[in-house]
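Field guide to reading this record: the first block holds the primary sequence, the second block holds the structure written as discrete tokens, and the final block holds curator observations. Each block starts with its own label. This record concerns Sulfotransferase, catalogued under organism Cynara cardunculus var. scolymus.

BLOCK 1 — SEQUENCE
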Amino acid sequence: MSISASNVPSLSSVTKYIDEDEHEKTKMALIFDKYNHRLATLPKERGWITENLYMYQGFWHQSKRRMSFETVMALQDTFNACPTDIYLATLPKSGTTWLKAIVFAIVNRNRYKNDSFPTHPLLISNPHNCLPFVETEIFRNTPTYVNDPHSPRLFATHIPYTSLPRSILDSGCRLVYLCRNPKDVLVSMFHFANKLRDKSRGPMRFEEAFELFSKGAMPIGPYWDHVKSYHNVSLKHPTKILFLKYDDMKVDTVNHVKRLSTFLGYPFTEAENDDGAVQEIVRMCSFENLREVNKHGDLREGIPNDAFFREGTVGDWTNHLTSEMSEILDQITNEKFHGLDILF
Ligand code: PPS
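BLOCK 2 — STRUCTURE
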């Protein structure tokens, strides 16, 4: 597979991205057919959105979806990374959409700086359309974005570090990992799953979500193993892997945007700092702004744009977890993260 997309979408390419459904369905079917025979060999667990999850290389994946073990296998077999690529890695519901928006805005700020409202892609489209997942990019027919050899390609992924395609690991490219308090990830995933779940299965109860999450069975979980997989390498290679927390980013977004821009090689100039360029990006990527832009329409296959914008706060778990549930998760987190500097 060759992925010749760069990170800079034009408005027409964003529209084309949405129009490629038919080709994608064919390509998805081919990839699923190629790898689906492995399903019978994989451990199985109850799913949140799909009926089942399957364990591949120590993590739970869906099957026959854009985010699936088949997709991970196909990427491992075919994906070619470039040393200039930038990857944003997250566990679902950890702030992926927000991070995509911020990084897209930082890297492309000069391209759009003279555009007046509302022509910036983030003011008309979902951040998921502006910065794709490698897991969804694999199904595309033609390049999504204008190929600019002087710009890095920007991709996001939910794939655990230990399952990343070899070429990403070998390429030495930069990667940002964003994690979030496990209790807020659980609550966010619970609401998301109930929005997307097949209606015939009925709504998921919070107790069931808690039970599955606690034993690690969430899409691309276990939560703790996913976070640790990236934390370990970020300690070894701090100039290549930036490890961030959603919770800290909410407290001081301005400094996180500055930190990200420096890490990515796009530091703000003094003039930009004086002009309030950082604050402008923070405002454009704020929960309130992105929720407003995305209050209508679908991302794809019936996933409404607004499903990615619920509360956008730290600590909503206090409205869902009993004190006993909270203690159980604290205990698991303390054990799993023992000796690591990962506190929420
Ligand atoms: S996904 O499906 O993996 O892409 O979801 P993800 O984006 O990782 O997580 C969704 C949660 O992030 C919140 N969100 C935001 N928080 C702060 N700022 C911005 N701009 C923002 N955009 C989305 C979103 O509301 C989900 O969290 P909850 O707790 O469910 O509100």
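BLOCK 3 — OBSERVATIONS
The CA atoms of residues 113 and 120 lie 9 Å apart.
The chain has one domain: 11-336.
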